[in-house]
Design brief:
Blueprint (H helix, E strand, L loop, with lengths): L14 E8 L3 H12 L2 H11 L6 E6 L1 H7 L21 E2 L4 E7 L2 H15 L4 E8 L6 E2 L20 E9 L20 E6 L3 E8 L18 E10 L2 H6 L21
Parallel strand pairs: 3-10
Antiparallel strand pairs: 1-4, 1-5, 2-4, 6-8, 7-9, 7-10, 8-9
């Protein structure tokens, strides 16, 4: 069974860096860029081996259109470039083709990992947004992730991946502990994580399908909250991500992690 990326289940109480990246020539360079992005789990694990006290984790997510260029084959059920995002409030799309999340116990670790990642991706990408969030009482999970959060055996090619919606809010002044989601219980088996600093709040909602997204209400009744952008992504499993290095082919038994997988 393919495993999820390390950052899917382990973001709480960590320093977080979020990079929104654009690939200017996505149609031409999606293959080479996605191959470079596939190395991010290895870069994260390598840094964690050298400095285990940092406990770094990460995930890389792809916008639907870019993923269609990078992956030669079927697409995850529910992933569609034109899918309407949840919520009644209109908001601009978060620009870019990839979202990279880096998290650890130390901002020094995040900076070092960010440098490694950007060196690997090279000049093929442009940085559109670089958010940095310290751990705080306002950086919290609004629900607990479980294996049921991830794509299951009914979509075996993409098992243990996830669909994700992001929302970026602007909060004037100090960060508030007021929940931005007014109906988190409607998530069902989805997973919602929120991180904040003095100006911004960024929320990541993960689910195995798009049904959970429709149950989230926009915070129209929360004073001082302005929604700036939304994004829609696919977070592939480790096997699928590594399969990008073979030109967008699922690695399956060719994966170096295959001998260590749960046979169930």
């Amino acid at each position: 069974m393919a495993g999820p990326q390390s950052g899917v289940f382990d973001l709480s109480h960590k320093h977080i860096t979020l990079l929104a990246l654009e690939v200017p020539e996505a149609g031409l360079s999606a293959g080479s860029v996605s191959k470079a992005a596939a190395v991010i789990p290895a870069l994260t694990a390598g840094l964690g081996k050298d400095r285990p006290e940092w406990n770094p984790v990460s995930f890389v997510a792809f916008r639907p259109l870019f993923w269609s260029f990078a992956w030669q084959g079927g697409q995850p059920s529910g992933l569609h470039p034109a899918r309407k995002l949840f919520g009644a409030v209109e908001a601009a799309e978060l620009e870019g083709d990839m979202l990279i999340c880096l998290a650890s116990e130390s901002p020094e670790c995040n900076d070092a990992l960010e440098q490694l990642v950007l060196e690997k991706l090279g000049r093929a990408v442009d940085i559109l947004e670089n958010f940095k969030f310290p751990p705080s009482p306002d950086a919290r999970s609004l629900s607990e992730p479980t294996r049921n959060t991830l794509i299951g055996k009914d979509d075996p090619e993409f098992e243990n991946g996830a669909l994700a919606v992001t929302r970026h809010f602007f909060r004037p002044g100090a960060a508030s502990s007021t929940p931005v989601f007014s109906n988190p219980e409607q998530l069902g088996e989805g997973y919602c994580f929120s991180c904040e600093n003095d100006e911004d709040c960024f929320q990541i909602v993960m689910s195995k399908d798009a049904v959970s997204f429709s149950g989230l209400a926009d915070p129209e009744d929360v004073e001082g909250v302005e929604i700036k952008s939304k994004g829609y992504y696919f977070i592939p499993s480790l096997d699928v991500l590594l399969g990008l290095r073979l030109g967008g082919i699922r690695m399956g038994t060719l994966s170096p992690t295959h001998p260590y997988k749960d046979p169930a």
